[in-house]
Amino acid sequence: MTTRTVKFKIYRYDPDKDAAPYMQDIAVELDPSDRKLLDALVKIKAKDDSMAFRRSCREGVCGSDAMNINGKNGLACLTEVDSLAQPITLRPLPGLPVIRDLIVDMTQFFKQYHSIKPYVVNNTPAPEMERLQTPEEREELNGLYECILCACCSTSCPSFWWNPDKFVGPAGLLAAYRFIADTRDEATNERLDNLEDPYRLFRCHTIMNCVDVCPKHLNPTKAIGKIKELMLSRTV
Amino acid sequence: MKVAKRTFDAVIVGAGGAGMRAAVTLAESGLKTAVISKVFPTRSHTVAAQGGVSASLGNSEPDHWTWHMYDTVKGSDWLGDQDAIEFMCKQAPQVVVELEHYGMPFDRTDEGKIYQRPFGGHMSNFGEKPVRRACAAADRTGHAMLHALYQRNVRANTQFFVEWLALDMLRAPDGRVLGVIAMEMETGEITVFQAKATLFATGGAGRIYYSSTNAFINTGDGVGMAARAGIPLEDMEFWQFHPTGVAGAGVLITEGVRGEGGILRNASGERFMERYAPNAKDLASRDVVSRAMVTEINEGRGCGVGKDHVMLDITHLDPKVIMSRLPGIREISIQFAGADPIKEPIPVVPTCHYQMGGIPTNYHGEVVADGKVVPGFYAAGECACASVHGANRLGTNSLLDLLVFGKSSGEAMIDFIRKEGAALPEIPQSEIDRSLARVNRLDTQKNGADVHETRLAMQRTMQTHAGVFRFKDLLEQGVNKILEIEKQVLQTEIRDKSKVWNTARTEALELENLIEVAKATMISANARTESRGAHVRDDAPDTPEHPNGRDDQNWLKHSLWYRDGNRMEYKPVTLTPLTVDSVALKTRAY
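ok -> C-alpha cells follow
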C-alpha cells in the first residue's frame, strides 16, 4: 500500500472562540503505517494543533480515545481507517456535555460508576495470606473486570441519554455485578438495595447497544440480567 | 499574575500504580491528600502492564525472597543498591497480598491461591532454573492492579484533581520542597498546590524514543520538573528495550508469553536464544534477549521482506492456555500484527520500554541530592531511581516497585508531616514566576519551532544515537544533536491559543520535560565508557580482563546528571544489604 488521502468530517467546537459547533471537512495524507484512526488523528493534529481529543495508550486498554465514529461509538486506536466509509464522520460521545471538539465532560459517567461502590467490601478481618478463591469462582469475574471505563456503552444507551442522573448505565451496572460476583465481597444485599429503584437498574430495556459497541467485547446486558435475576430471587 | 492557592498535607503528582498506592496509605491515615493527574487515574500507563508482579509467595513451587534478591542484583548487573533491593524483595509477598485484599482479581491455582508464572531472569536457588514468581491476572495484570488501586482510593475518599497538568515543583531557598504549580486542562487556570510533603509518581519518559511501547502521556513530567528545580538525575543512560514490541506498531507483547512457553525464532525457524543463553534460553534477562535479537537481525537472520524482525512463536501451545492465560495478547496480535498467534507467530522487535534511572531516592522514597535528603520531596515508581533496577530491570519488578515504594514513600511522608506539624513555609514568588514564565512564553512566541516536528527530531535522534547497541561516535554526535534540538524546544510556537483544553499547549510543555530526559540520557551514556546491563558500547567489548565489557574498577558507580552545565557527578553503589550478606560481584551469564 502507498500513501493515501482520507477524507474526514469532524465535529469542532472551541467555546473560547466558536459561537456554535460545526462540522469541518478535512483531507489528510496517510502513510501505509497509519493503520488506525488514532494514527490519522495524530496526523491531522500535526497540521492543525487546535484539534482536541484525548488519547494515551494507543492499544485499547486505557479507554481515553472513545468517540462516535461514523455513527457508532468506538476507540480510535482500535479502529482500522480503511474499514470506514468516507468521509469518516467523527463526533464526541453522544449524550454527555461537550467541552471541546471530541472531548466530553465525563463527570456524570464517573458519578454513576462511583455510585455502585466500586470496591470489594469485606469486613471480616483479612487473613495473613491471600483470601482463597477457586479457579471457577475467579472465572465468574471474567467478562466483568476487564472494563476500561471508556464510556462507549453508556453513551450509546438511549436510557442513559434520557436519565444520565438516575440510570446507572451499562458500565456502572457491569461494575456492580463484578463486585456481586466476587466471592470475596460481602455486600451483595446492600448492592441490590442500592439498585432497587425504578431508574437505577430497571431503566435497562435490553436495547443492547452497549454489547454492540463495547471495544473489549464485554456484555453489560448479560450482567444486568443477572442482577435482575438476583433481585427477583430474593423477593420470592 | 496572581494565582489561586490550595493547601494540603500531602500532594501526589501522578495517579498510576505508585501514586495511587501512596495515596491509599496517606488517605487512610486521615491526612489531607490530593492526587494530581493529567489523565483520569485508570488511564495511567500502569494499565498497560501485562505479565505480572513478582513476589516469592511460592504458591506453585519453593521460592525465597533471597533468591528474588539475588536475581534482581544480577539482573541489575550489580548497579542496583542492595539495601533497596533487599527491602523490595522482602516486602513483595506482603504488598501483593495487600493488593489481593483490596480486590485485585488475580488468577488462581487449584488450591485457590494467587497464580504465578515464570518470567525472564527470575530463577530458583540463586540462578539455577526459572521459577514461578510472577503473580498474574491473565495478561492484564497492570489493568487489574490499577483499577483495584483506584477502587481502594474511592473507598478511602482520596481527593483527585483529574486532568490537571503539573507545571513545576516549588522550592524554598533552603531547598525544601513546598508543593507544585499545576494547570487545569479544561480551563487553563493555574493553581499552586502547597503541601507539607510532595510525591512525584509521574512515570517514565519512553516517548523520548521514536519507537516505544509507552503511552503518549509518558513524557517524563516529574523528571523534567525535578531537573529544572536543580535535582540531579541518576543513571539515565540505562533504558530497557523490551524484546517483544509488535514490529512496526511498537505495542507491547508481554514476556509472560515466553513464561507460558513461547519461543523466539529467526528466519530459518531456529530457537536462537539457545546460543546466547544456554540455561535460561528465551527467559534470559531482557537486555540479553534484546541484544541477541538485534544481533540476529544485523547478521541477516531476521524475518520478513526487510529481514527486520524475529518471530515469537506460541503455535505449539494449547489454544486453551492462550485463551485463558494470554487473551489480551491474542487480541493485540490480531489488531496490530494481523496475526492470530494460535495459528501463526507474532512479528516482534526490541522496543524502548522502561527508564531504569530517574530522580534519586532511598528506599523510603525520600529524594536524595548532593548526599542529603531533600526535605518534603519524595519520588516513587518509574520516575524514581531507588535504585532497584540498576542497569537492567527484570520483568514484573516494575509493578512490584510501584507497590513497595508507593507504600514506603506514603509512610515516610506521614512521619515527615506529623513531625512538621502545622509548619508551612512561604512559597517564594520567584518560584511561581519561574513557572508562569514558561506558560507565558508559549502564549507569545513568534516565529518559533513546530512542536510535532521538534519532538520527532528528538525521537529519531535518540533512536539512532542511543539504541540497543551504542557506539562511541554516534553518542558523541548525539550529544551535539540533542543540545541543538533543545534550542528549538525552548522556542516552540503553538497556533492554538485557546484557554479551553488546549492540547497543543500541553504537548509543548510535555516536550520541555522530554528534552530534559533526552539530554540526561545522551550525556550520561556518552560519559559512561564501559558496558553494563542495557548500556553496551562498541568501544567497551567483551574481554578476559573486562567480561561483557564491564569495568567495575572504574564504573561501579551511579551517574548523576545535573541540568546546570550538563555536569556529571557520580556516587557509589550500595553493595551492603540491610540484613543479609552482599551478593558478590561476578560475571553475568544466563
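The two ends of chain A are 63 Å apart (CA to CA).
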